[in-house]
Design a protein that fits this description.
It is a single chain. The chain has about 300 residues and is of the alpha/beta class. The protein folds into two domains: about 5-110 and about 280-295, ATPase, nucleotide binding domain (Nucleotidyltransferase, domain 5), CATH 3.30.420; about 125-275, 2-Layer Sandwich (Nucleotidyltransferase, domain 5). Helices cover about 35% and strands about 20% of the residues. The chain contains nine helices and ten strands. It has helices at about 40-55, 95-105, 115-125, 185-190, 190-200, 210-230, 245-260, 270, 280-295; strands at about 5-10, 15-20, 30-35, 60-65, 110, 130-140, 140-150, 150, 235, 275. Strands 3-2-1-4-5 form a five-stranded mixed beta sheet. Strand 4, helix 2 and strand 5 form a beta-alpha-beta unit. It is globular. This is Fructokinase. InterPro entries: ATPase_NBD, ROK, ROK_cs. Belongs to the ROK (NagC/XylR) family.
């Protein structure tokens, strides 16, 4: 493989689109960001940008795509890379993989954005050196992925941890922000729900009652993942988790909720729940996916 053989990474999110073009060794040739718009327009922005920064005579040999979900991520499925029902207008049923492949003329591998982030945090981020790493992001939505020795968990279609049901705190009558579920984590403590709970208060750190509630629900989520997946660590990312004191509060709540049952007694929350190390973990994961595909 020569320097004229290039790989690309694309991340599609609910509000932003990212791309990066690089050589297989990681040298970046071009990258950028756009706002998410309608599906065809979004793909035109991304693929047009990739083509513009391609050096003359270069060949694109693989594209890694980290996408918001739900999306089919099983390569054996005839619907591989196709969006499923989503609240994002126009995206339900969209053939994301097919559209990108048609525009760029290269093999395209697809995974969820949070699976890609889990892969990146395990390989080059906060979970480096760990075999089994869970990634949880709390932002516009709540999502999570799992990377086991460099392979992500792909199901039907992929983990959707944001929709795990929470046990509500006494007195919490907040109307869920999720149109599908009344008591799921995303509906109760994703970014939009937190902003509604805060009202005129600008910062979560200035609202101790809301912070304590968020810590409770996020600890419930992490406890569920701990008991179900037994990860070596849980990497926490997303804008909400950047609030001062929130991760420490989740650590305290997690320890209280798990108690001393089984392996939970051996967990040190300070090293088990760790902040994400990568600013664009999904894009980094997409680049790792593209590099692996190019090497096959």
């Amino acid at each position: 493989m020569t320097h004229k053989h290039l790989i690309a990474a694309i991340e599609t999110g609910g509000t932003k689109l990212l791309y990066r073009l690089a050589d297989p060794e990681g040298a970046v040739i071009g990258e950028g960001r756009f706002d998410t718009v309608a599906p065809d327009a979004s793909i035109a922005l991304l693929t047009g940008a990739v083509r513009r920064v391609m050096p003359p005579g270069a060949t694109l040999v693989a594209v890694g795509v980290a996408s918001f979900g739900p999306i089919v991520v099983d390569p054996a499925s005839p619907r591989y890379g196709r969006m499923l029902a989503t609240t994002k207008a126009g995206w339900s049923g969209y053939d994301l993989r097919g559209a990108i492949a048609a525009e760029l003329g290269a093999p395209v591998v697809v995974d969820s954005d949070v699976n890609a982030a889990a892969l990146a945090e395990q390989q080059i981020g906060a979970g480096r050196g760990q075999r089994l790493v869970t990634y949880v992001t709390v932002g516009t939505g709540i999502g999570g992925g799992l990377s086991i020795a460099g392979e992500t968990l792909k199901g039907n279609p992929h983990p959707e941890i944001g929709h795990i049901r929470m046990v509500r705190r006494p007195g919490d009558r907040f109307a869920s922000g999720c149109p599908f579920h009344a008591d799921c984590a995303e509906g109760l403590v994703a970014g939009p729900a937190i902003r509604r709970r805060l009202g005129d208060i600008a910062d979560l750190a200035d609202a101790p009652d809301v912070l304590a509630l968020a810590a409770d629900y996020l600890a419930q989520l992490c406890a569920t993942l701990t008991l179900a997946w037994s990860p070596d660590c849980i990497v926490l990312g997303g804008g909400v988790l950047g609030a001062h004191g929130l991760i420490d509060a989740v650590r305290t709540e997690l320890q209280a909720q798990l108690g001393t049952y089984g392996a939970a007694a051996d967990i040190d929350p300070a090293t088990y729940l760790v902040p994400a190390a990568l600013a664009d973990a999904g894009l980094e994961g997409a680049m790792l996916m593209a590099r692996a595909a190019a090497g096959k």
